[in-house]
Automatic annotation (TrEMBL):
Its EC number is 1.14.13.2. The keyword Flavoprotein applies. Residues 2-342 form the FAD-binding domain. Keywords: FAD, Flavoprotein, Oxidoreductase. It is an enzyme of class 1 (oxidoreductase). This is p-hydroxybenzoate hydroxylase. InterPro entries: FAD-bd, FAD/NAD-bd_sf, HB_mOase, RIFMO-like. It comes from Mesorhizobium escarrei. GO terms for molecular function: 4-hydroxybenzoate 3-monooxygenase activity. The keyword 4Fe-4S does not apply. The lineage of its organism: Bacteria, Pseudomonadati, Pseudomonadota, Alphaproteobacteria, Hyphomicrobiales. SUPFAM superfamilies: FAD-linked reductases, C-terminal domain, FAD/NAD(P)-binding domain.
């Protein structure tokens, strides 16, 4: 079998890239290790920047997003029970859209199914070959039978633990990493959100986040140490801990119920450079991870594949290598900007090992600075909404 682009991974990055290439008639095959239900069962991101929404519009999959997505003009930050609001619309004229990664994935899957492009789910033992030569290919097994696809390019969209980055020789790769000694315990519940906007809370007991998926479905997180197990967290224990970390008024309004999903996500900052090796391109979590604070992961993945799709379209339609050659440097500039913001937001909102009395005063001063300085608030709003990415 032969195609132009083999895409490894059918998460949001792989599916969006496939869709953007499809709309320009560029043949591609997606290989995904898991089943469609498994992919849809992962509850992850919830906040989309304008640039991500625009890419979904360009892909023709934004109809439901515009119907059901919730446009948010700002967020609230809380420190030991005192809330302050950051008004993105007033500060930088931008908003974000709350629409779950599950829904984005669903919409992209539906569009792909309708286009009859090839997606192989439950593809096992995916291996990448010859991406430093003129004849790259990808091999995989399905139901015990081996297959090989010859191609022009390989897009590694297979997440942090995927095969793509792992197949690059160590000496060709530089990696940069921070692992945080805590994770986020998340709960999804069929109850209306406690507030119209997201609340990011810094409390002595640790970070908490009140988010949502719809007017009737909420998503909450509390910071827990990395050695915690989800089984140790009954719903009741989770709600008690969350209430403890919120201001009294918000805690009093919180509607609780049986959790529909509960999981612990570790926090990590990671970047692999470069993002291109011959005809292999890395995109999304395969190349970089941000801690979730600030909601950048999915948006970065979308930004990467937007650049990559444009580069490949330029290659096939104009026979120009320029976009391909610029891909890694252009993507990494935005990646490092988001790494900076996510790391900073994590450090001002969480209880870290170095959060002694001095560290805590500095965290409070950082939050006060966002209240006192319009410049600081605008810089925050630019980063959070992705206004910076538009350059
Ligand atoms: P993935 O979603 O990881 O997809 C990779 C795909 O590749 C998977 O389907 C996997 O099964 C497949 N795969 C892996 N290995 C192989 C292989 N060997 N062969 C074939 N297929 C393979 N981001 C935001 O922007 N906003 C948020 O609000 C936000 N909140 C988050 C909250 C939590 C709790 C977490 C954990 C993450 C959050 N993120 C958020 C991050 C976001 O979910 C990720 O950045 C996003 O999923 C990256 O998409 P991706 O397609 O690059 O990778
Ligand atoms: C969500 C996740 C985030 O990391 C964030 O900063 C905001 C919202 C969410 O899952 O809803």
């Amino acid at each position: 079998m032969r195609t132009k682009v083999v895409i490894v991974g059918a998460g949001p990055a792989g599916l969006l890239l496939g869709r953007l290439l499809d709309t320009h008639g560029i043949d591609n095959v997606i290989l995904e290790r898991r089943s469609p239900d498994y992919v849809l069962g992962r509850i992850r991101a919830g906040v989309l920047e304008r640039g991500t929404v625009e890419l979904l519009e360009r892909s023709g999959v934004a109809e439901r997003l515009h119907r059901e997505g919730l446009v948010h003009n700002g967020v609230e930050l809380s420190f030991d029970g005192h809330r302050q609001r950051l008004d993105f619309l007033a500060l930088v004229g931008k908003t974000v859209t709350v629409y779950g990664q599950t829904e984005v994935t669903h919409d992209l899957m539906d569009a792909r199914a309708a286009s009859h492009a090839t997606t192989v789910y439950e593809a096992e033992n995916v291996t990448l070959h010859g991406f430093d030569s003129a004849s790259p290919s990808v091999r995989y097994e399905k139901g015990g039978v081996g297959h090989e696809i010859a191609c022009d390019f390989i897009a590694g969209c297979d997440g942090f633990h995927g095969a793509s980055r792992a197949s690059v020789p160590d000496k060709a790769l530089s990696t940069f990493e921070r692992v945080y000694p805590f994770g986020w315990l998340g709960v999804l519940v069929e109850k209306p959100p406690v507030s119209d906007e997201l609340i990011y809370a810094n409390h002595e007991r640790g970070f908490a986040l009140c988010s949502m998926r719809s007017p009737t479905r909420s998503r909450y997180y509390v910071q827990v140490s990395t050695d915690e197990h989800v089984e140790a967290w009954s719903d009741e224990r989770f709600w008690d801990e969350l209430r403890n970390r919120l201001d009294a008024e918000t805690a009093g309004r919180l509607q609780t119920g049986a959790s529909m999903e509960k999981s612990i996500a570790p926090l990590r900052s990671f970047v692999a450079e470069p993002m291109r090796f011959g005809s292999l391109f890395l995109a999304g979590d395969a190349a970089h991870i941000v801690p979730p604070t600030g909601a950048k992961g999915l948006n970065l993945a979308a930004h990467d594949v937007g650049l990559l799709a444009d580069a490949l379209i330029e290659f096939y339609e104009e026979r120009s290598q320029a976009g391909i050659d610029a891909y890694s440097a252009r993507a990494l500039e935005r990646v490092w900007n988001a790494e900076r913001f996510s790391w900073w937001m994590t450090s001002i909102l969480h209880r870290l090992p170095e959060t002694d009395a001095f560290g805590r005063r500095i965290q409070k001063a950082e939050l006060d600075n966002l209240r006192l300085s319009r410049g600081a608030a605008s810089a925050f709003a630019e980063s959070y909404t992705g206004a910076i990415a538009a350059s």
